[in-house]
Queue: 2 jobs
Job 1
Amino acid sequence: MTAKIEAKNLVKIYGENTDKALELFNQGLSRSEIIQETGLTVGVAGVDFEIAEGEIFVVIGLSGSGKSTLLRCINGLLMPTAGSLLVDGKAVEKLNDEQLRKLRGEKISMVFQHFALLPNRTITDNVAFGLELRGVPYEERRERAQKALVSVGLEEWKDKLPEELSGGMKQRVGLARALLMDSDILLMDEPFGALDALIRAEMQEELISLQREIKKTVVFVTHDLDEALRLGDRIAIMRDGAIEQIGTADEILSDPANEYVEKFLQGIDVSKILDANSISKWPREVIRETEGISVALHRMKKADTDYLFVLGTRNKLVGMILREDVLKLAKEKNKSIQDIIKETNTVQSDIIMRDVYPELRNAEKDLAVVDDSGRFLGVITHSILLMTLDERKGGDGIAES
Amino acid sequence: MPSLELPKLPLGDAIEWFVRWLIKNLSAIFDFIREVLNAITGAFSDGLLWVHPVFLIVIFGLFIWLITNKLTALLSAIGLALVWNMGLWSQLVDTLVLVVVAVVIALLIGIPTGILMTRSRKLEGAMRPVLDFMQTMPPFVYLIPAVMLFGIGVVPGLFATVIFAIPPPVRLTYLGITQVPEEMKEMAIAFGANDRQVLAKVELPLSLPSIMAGVNQCIMLGISMVVIASMIGAGGLGEVVMRSVSRLDLSLGFESGLAIVILAMVLDRMSRNIGSGKETPLSRIMKNYKKHRKQKEIEQSA
């Protein structure tokens, strides 16, 4: 499979006459040394990555880490000083002006941190801006823009000016403008950075559900780690223009590449990021609904537990059996466990860890984790929950309550 | 004490030599410009003077009402009527034509220059001292080359006025465009705009208030220069002012001065509102027209 977007040893140095700075960079000098020597800033310092079609690729880093610079190299707003950036296998830096405009107008759309809505145009005309540049006739582009506004729930605001809208609404307009272009790639430059926390969470949800339908290749720049872990199929952590680590949220959380990444991850609230599935464990023993009581007793003894989850065909969760019921049954010489299966407390696999706490408190035994079709995925116990919290916080093994 | 006398640099002589060279070699061009401008200003003045002052005052009043408001229009009409009453109507028309033609020329040169300055840092660096020179050189000095190039009359007055009034539109156009947020330009480029589209759809609309302030300043400077230009025979209200000064005629001086003040205020109030986005009768009419058209569309589609 070829990558949708690919960077090959990409370097971007700001300013004119970058030759000397590039030479120093190739000699392995650091960013601060190059500034001292030449006065030029290295924005992106030799970066390699591949972004697959349809994935949300999040670039995260502190301000000045080069993440926005990297984003602007993708649609040629900035030209790389060295190395190459390929979109669909074609090098962006080798395109002429006309081809570059075509790439921007048809293949790549962008969403901006401060919305970049033209204050002198109505919402409809703002959304239609890209089509206007493309030369779509007035009536047609207005019609299409208004349809796009319906899809973001802002049709009543179509004749208003941007100043009359709240921040969240403005960014919805920005999103509608980008989506209307029907391009494969969506570049988002800290799009929710200027919104307050509640609206931001709402917009993240919307983006996730939207992405399920449209399946675009999204490059998302942010400085908010929670946001990155929530949205990103894969995440790249940047520092001083270089990428420190690329991986899925799980990979980065469980195996930070170096000290910087580890430090970066500190202070995040894992309970908001990890879902039930990722913290659950497979129990030591389970039982099939077709099996008998002697097997049940044997397994309970072996696993040192007073209950077992009962699974049906294809690991479907049927319920659980308690030790006391099994013992009662044994006295009656009844061999089948069918009659003593009880209901069990379950949680869906995708609910976040924070919402698992109350469920666990109300549960009779431990919590079974199931997916959409009711299949058993694992179990969450009090000790698993505490251990997970403790591990992620980097404590020394004993959970404090 | 040893004398430190150095030979004087022949700066002034050099300029004079240059202007004389222009006259000698390019006089055909200057003659042509003079004929064209003479014809334009003459036709304008004659046309406006052919209409009866009362009728003209009413037309001006209505026009001012359309682009400002009722009070401004009424006061403007009263002011203009007062000038007519003082017997200075034809001079007022001459001055108005001179100012309008000079301002139009200044804007036609100034606004594109301001735009070009945003595109080239070299041009910007080169224009800065030129603009300083144009603004601070005493305006009387322009009269000398103007007369040498165009002789006595309206056209040298126009020439001097244009040079004096050009810096504000250049500077304010440049300022307005450079103050357009970078993100807006970036957005247009990211959606596939070329340089011309960025200018027409983002930079000019967003810098319109600044550019209109430049237009306003240009008009004001134009009026102040028109008085000076009358020294070389540009005519109009300035000529009356000069005459009253030379005769120490206080009453005539006051009246002609007041007429200039009235003209300046009328033009200022008119040009100040344009581009500010304030609601005016004209904008209301446009809005109603749009609404009406939309309703018609809905009726048609229903």
Job 2
Amino acid sequence: MADGLVFALLGSSLSIMLAGIGSALGVSIAGQVGAGVLTEDPNKFGQVLLLQALPGTQGIYGLLAGFWVLMKLGLLGGTPVEISVVQGLQIMLACLPIAIVGLVSGIYQGKTSAASIGMIARRPEETGRAIILPAMVETYAVLALLATILLLNSIQV
Amino acid sequence: MAISEMEKVGIIAHRSLREKIFDQLQDLGVMEITEDEKDLFEDFPSSPELEEVERRLGELSYCLNFIDRYRPEKPGILQSFFPSPIHMSKEDFLNFGFNYIPIYNTFLSWEEKLKDIRSSLNRLNSNLEFMKRIQSVEVPLENLRGTLYTRSFLLEFPSKKREALEEKLRERNLAWLREEFPGTGGNILWWVIIHKSEEEAMEEILAELSISLMSLPQPFEGTPQEIIEDLEHRIGELHKEQSEIIEEAALQTKFERELKIAYDYYLSLWERHQSEAKLLRTKETCYISGWTKKEDLPRLEESLSQVGREWFLYHREPKEGEDVPINLENNSWVNNFSVLTHLYGLPNYTEVDPTPSMAVFFFFFFGMCLGDVIYGLVLALFGFITAAYLDISDSTKLFLRMLAWGGVGAILAGIFTGSWLGDLFDYLPPSLSFLTNLKNSLAVVDPLNDPLTMLIFSLGVGIVQILVGIMLAVVKEWKRGNYAVAIMDHLSWFVFLISIVMYIVGITASPLLASVALPLIIGSVIFLVATQGRHQKNIIMKFLSGLLSLYDLVSYLGDTLSYSRLFALGLSSGIIAMLARTLASLFSGSPYIGWLIALLVALAFHLFNLLMSGLGAFVHSARLQYVEFFTKFYENGGRDFKPFGHRTKYIKIS
């Protein structure tokens, strides 16, 4: 019975897609503010790029979770594992934390990054502190990734 | 160790020595000059010299900005991140003379000219646009003015209104003459001449059909075609003039070095005047007050003795509540991490410097988050080599060395978890199998197949840091003589938490440990409940707020769980590295250049991963220090020690 594969793959794609969307939105929100700052002062490119990259991690976490599922199913080299519908659903559910939290936290981290970019526009010497603020939001994406990894690891296939 | 001991210094000198003393102090650079009696300075007039220097600084920074704006080649990324300073000896710097005024005036006049050219260009371009609309009109525009008995207009209207207009004009039986020209955008142009007396009737007709007269933006002479040619010629001339000035401006980078030195020269002079303004004077004496490091006192006295004898120096230890500037002193390894303390905020004078303990934890945390031997190696080499060979400022060097040490931590963590570019070393050709064996024999945990062990290890490291944090709080309060606070608020929690850990370890590993821990837990709980409500007056409130304080356990639990990120981030960089290998191996099957594509894909992916994981490792390790560690004991609020010296922006005085 290999019917569960559909659900497992759905889970894998969901985590890659939703977390990726979250990061794309977040990076774009930060980038729009960054572009405004750069028109005033092109010398801040380095700091602005750094802050813009911060909400990009959710997409990576999502990719990571999706990749882990593929590895678990043996789809990347090796012999594919046959899984039941229940196992497939379990894998899909395990993917949800990083998928959903990645989506939402990516957007909000982008907003915080945008605010931090505004901060270094006026006070460039505060770059260090400006980087820490968006990182506080990312904590929850890291925790969701952790949950996904632990859940996936506990499912026997 | 840690926070340097400071001394308050006061120098009273005869006024004749003032200049010389200031020269010495600025050269020596060990004393921060402060204003002693702040309220005496309120209506102290700003000195004219200071204003003069500020004006010059403004002019010089205008010149430097101007050069920057018209610089032909922009500096590279590396140069803009790590600008290299200009090296100069102190004598050369102090005797530097450069008359920048002609340059400043030239720049101003160029700027003015460029502004004029831009506004002329705007005007000419909008005229040109207008002329293009009426290009087909073959009548000289000066004729629009009319004659003694006639009026002439230029009309632009959609061609479908033509018949209606002709109809109306015929109805009124006006004396009129017109010539039609093709217009743009579906419009036609009419040149109309009427008798002066019929002007009003004409206007009525035009209003009925809502056709408006075309008015020229300014009087012109000649046909539109001629005017267009003239305009294009003038625009071309202006463009040429503009690019000539810009080219000339681009050449001015040759003065950049001199201008920067001049800027720093005045910056140093500014600081001098600024400090001199903080003097207290009488008719015959002046009084300089400030701070210096205790160890620098002999040097200070010695250098003053070179000036003359009409001075007196007194010094004392800082009083309680005084705003003592902070200078951190650590060994060179710890000093690499002092950037992080500066980012958060310096300690105040009465507490301990958190840098040494934080440095150790940051080193390990960064290592665990990046967690790969090869990545660590790359980062360490990059950091150490750039710090050693690039001509960059000292603070940038410190930062690079901190990253490099983080890389060393990553090498250790990578060996521990067996991550060498992810799992690449499991796929080496047989001839290199000794490397695979080396990797496997050194690896202790496999976080992929045994995540729980790694997770518990991360949390364990976190508990250690939290306990160290609480212990530092105990030490701090003990040193201040607040024994009650040290024991009741901090040590009790230390015992409580450590006995909980012992108990948890005990029930899985050794029942003996658990049986020791249990009474300790009960004892510390009773102690906490009994002491934490001591500020309340009512006995019931004492008990209740004591009980409520146990709720803090939740926040300690939350702090501990926060360290799980160490595991998650370490795993994430490893898995992305595996992903790079997997993707690359998909390409390696293609004929002929498959291996090349695979190599490029793998390189690009690994580089991306190194950048993103490195950023994550830095940010999250720093966060753990700031949010989980510092909150346990650190008060901060210190002010940086800024000795009076030659402060420069572009120059490094050697």
